[in-house]
ATP synthase F0 sector subunit C (Symbiodinium natans), 135 residues
Amino acid sequence: MVLTGAVLLCSGALFTAFVAAPRAAPAPTVPHAATAALSAITLVAPEAAHAEGGAVWIPALSAIGAGFAIGLAAIGSGVGQGIASGRCIDGISRQPEVADDLRGVLLLSLAFMESLTIYGLVIALVLLFANPLIK
């Protein structure tokens, strides 16, 4: 029963994020979809662990969660790096004399953005290989 409710919740949120929201107003759809999917996984995981045959659900849901962790971290980091690099190139083209200063700031900010992807990778590896839900 909880699994059906979680699937319906996830489906409704994904429909709202990708179909209804773009027509109504420009909204960030990736965070809505991620929140819906992770909420569904969070709702299903405890019930599935105690249900009969629940030992199969935890590794499967952990693999889905690991995929979301690394996928969303990579998407967010890639978009952020692209925007930052584009703005830096715009700034250098307008004021070439500050190219060295902008380059240093850009490299530092790219390192911080890439660290978020590495955090997503660490979470994915923990879910796959050192999962605290599996005893």
